[in-house]
Amino acid sequence: MSAEAANPGAQSRRRGRPRIDLRRLGRTVLLGPPARDRLPDAIGHVAEAHRAHHPDAELAILHKAYVLAESSHRGQFRKSGEPYITHPLAVTLILAELGAETTTLTASLLHDTVEDTEVTLDQVKAEFGAEVAYLVDGVTKLEKVDYGAAAEPETFRKMLVATGNDVRVMSIKLADRLHNMRTLGVMRPEKQARIAKVTRDVLIPLAERLGVQALKTELEDLVFAILHPEEYERTRSVIADNPTAWDTLDTIAEHFRAVLKDADITAEVLIRPRHFVSVHRVRVKRGEMRGTDFGRLLVLVGEDADCYGVLGELHTCFTPVISEFKDFIAAPKFNLYQSLHTAVAGPDGAVAEVLIRTHQMHKVAEAGVIALGNPYVPVEGTESPDGEREDPTRPGWLSRLLEWQQSTPDPDTFWTSLRADLAQDREITVFRADGGTLGLPAGASCVDAAYAQYGEEAHSCIGARVNGRLATLSTVLSDGDTVHLLLAQDATSGPSPDWLDRARTPAARIAITSWLAAHPEGVKAPAVAPRRPVPVTADRPAAANAVVDLPDVTVRLAGCCTPVPPDAVTGFAVRGGTVTVHREECPAVARMKALDREPIPVTWGDAAECRVTLIAESFGRPRLLADLTEAIAAEGAAIVSATVEPPTQQRVRHTYTLQLPDSAGLPALMRAMRDVPGVYDVSRTQHPAATA
To answer: Of all helices (H) and strands (E), which one includes residue 546?
Structure first.
């Protein structure tokens, strides 16, 4: 299977710089010693690609690394029969074409020397420096002799830990796997399938998360061809049977160029063919393929502002499909990707998808972290307070992965958790109550947010507020949500088994599983210590401190809103010569006025005592009722009546009718009740009352 057959984008590359045939590099190595004043022809291809991105790059170190790699691998051959040096050369060329800097290319030339030759890591460090040695060590596999069946998962663990300190480790690994996948045809079918599945489950998601789309798309096509050969052949036939599919896109592209030229916007309009997997997905989704389904239009400009200028012109001169618009410039994806996405209908009604980005955005979209060069070049303001260098390319998902892997010493658990983590291919950002942010996979719940923010302290989480509203722990979070997590102060609190059904992140699942294993009996309520008796009084008449200017009437405070001084109040006459007093914001007042009931002015008298009904919203926990009644008693209030509704989704609603010696103490009473652990809100009753 040729590289071109597995990469439908090969047709578009013929219009630009010719693609170097990596399979010819093996023969180049055998052409004899190079002249003293130039690099060998084989490494010369790498040097040419490298200088295209880094004109001032120092090539001497590449020559030195090539000489060591070629001499140490001499006599070794790949299963295809080619000299082994063709592999590190091909890996290095892949990275050079993506714009990798010199240190990465040096390490990629040497990446198999420590693993497969007599060269030692100390020798690499002595000749090429600590950074190159670190990268080489990061991609060096662990021996099966030492680790047995755990060699592969432990190798990936080692590689990911190394990537946490330097993302260039994973860049080399991805390029290494790409070349191996290109030449996988010489392997037995069962080994091809095994390698392809690991590539699909681990390497492709890593390429996506690091933003290296150029490697990700080709890896997807190669895996597709091995694991789904029939669908692959069917997709290739669909592409081959539509040779004029590009004509419609060419026509729309010409219209774009004319419109942007008239608007005096300098832009490059290109046709970007879909790779095989993308074509397959569109065919499955839509059935019959349209001409514009085989590619998308790419508009490249110089500045960020020009992106929006192009968008405005295209939406003005063509019919936009508004539902297809996405702004990844204002809100970049978690993998550094930035672009404007839209779709417009051409003059003949054909709908074309459009990507609008700057040239720099395009470079990052293709090469991801590789395009950022060396993340450790000293830049003013990048030193952390403790003097350690900061890696601007280390994304939040990688930090989370490195944290949870420390809790999984078992290789099988790590391997399973890693695949599950990487299967979540989209990330969201939620805001914490303190203004910080949390990066979580799409579909994460409040349980995941709790463990991401608090670690093992999240065992005592009892609920959350999402965007200011009460939410259960099972609530699924959306991008941009604000999450205020509520922790119980009771040390006996802990997760329940059903939390595992709500957790999406390995960090949360591992922590919950560990706690449940250590506490098989679950949470036990502690013995209740003796408490002083709480004064609960029998029902007594409401304080008649509301005054109306009418003779011989009885004044009654409404139970629906329990007004107290100095609330603004109004009254309404009801049967039996009684005036019922409501707070002015009570819903009953609006209903009375809608019925043309005449309001009666009410003032407050001198009586100090008052009665009020409060509703306490809380999360269920042991001893909550005792703590609430104690807080009420401490403020000098007497409980006239109390009801506790059955718990619903861990939430409990308490209703208290209280007699206060003075209405001035009501704010302090409500604050004291809110301070009880587990209570998230206390409010005055505001339930509807029957119309009198």
So the answer is: strand 546-548
Q: Tell me what the pLDDT averaged over the chain comes to.
A: 80
Does the pLDDT at position 28 exceed 70? no
Please pick, among 48, 116, 403, 584, the residue that the annotation labels catalytic. Answer: 116
- Those residues whose C-beta lies under 8 Å from the C-beta of residue 190, and which sit 6 or more positions away, are none
Question: Phi-psi category of 92—alpha, beta or left, where left has phi over 0 and alpha has psi -120 to 50?
Answer: alpha
Q: Give all strands of the β-sheet with 569-574 in edge-to-edge order.
A: 554-557, 578-583, 569-574
Catalytic annotation on 4? no
- Count of H helices and E strands in the chain? 28, 20
pLDDT of residue 558: 83
Confidence of residue 425 (pLDDT cuts 50, 70, 90): low
pLDDT at 257 over 90: yes
Number of other residues whose CB lies within 10 A of the CB of residue 229: 11
Q: Distance of CA 175 to CAs 109, 202, 395, Å? A: 11, 14, 20
Question: Measured between alpha carbons, how far is 315 from 596 in angstroms, rounded to an integer?
Answer: 54
Q: Distances from the Cα of 138 to the Cαs of 131, 163, 247, 286, in angstroms?
A: 11, 8, 47, 43
Look at residue 454 and tell me whether its pLDDT is greater than 90.
no
Does 566 sit behind a cis peptide bond, omega within 30 degrees of 0 on the bond before it? Answer: yes
**Cα distance between residue 53 and residue 366, in whole Å:** 14
Q: What does the pLDDT average to over 432-436?
A: 81
The model's pTM is 0.67
CA atoms within 13 A on the CB side of 163: 30
Integer-rounded Cα radius of gyration of the chain: 35
Residue 319 reports pLDDT greater than 70: yes
Q: Which two tokens stand for residue 681?
A: 């809100």
Catalytic residue among 41, 115, 403, 630: 115
**Residue 623 main-chain phi, psi, to 5 deg:** 70, 15
* DSSP 8-state symbol, 482: E
Given a cut of 70, whether residue 690 has pLDDT beyond it is: no
> DSSP letter string over 336-352?
S---EEEEEE-TTS-EE
Whole-number pLDDT of residue 649: 60
DSSP string spanning 198-250? HIIIIIHHHHHHTT-HHHHHHHHHHHHHHH-HHHHHHHHHHHHT-TTHHHHHH
For residue 577, count CB atoms less than 10 angstroms from its CB and return exposed for 0-12, middle for 13-18, buried for 19 or more: exposed
Q: What angle do CA 52, 333, 421 make, to 5 degrees?
A: 105
For 61-98, how does the pLDDT look when each residue is reduced to its tens digit (9 = 90+)? 999 999 999 999 989 998 888 899 999 999 999 999 99
Its sign, for the CA torsion 359, 362, 367, 373, is positive
Using pLDDT thresholds of 50, 70 and 90, give the confidence band for residue 359: very high
**What residue type is assigned to position 479 of the chain?**
D
d(Cα 229, Cα 231) in Å, to the nearest integer?
6
The closest of 449, 441, 459, 451 to 484, measured between CA atoms, is 449
With a cut of 80, say whether residue 232 has pLDDT above it: yes
- pLDDT computed for residue 692 by the predictor: 42
- Is 115 one of the catalytic residues? yes
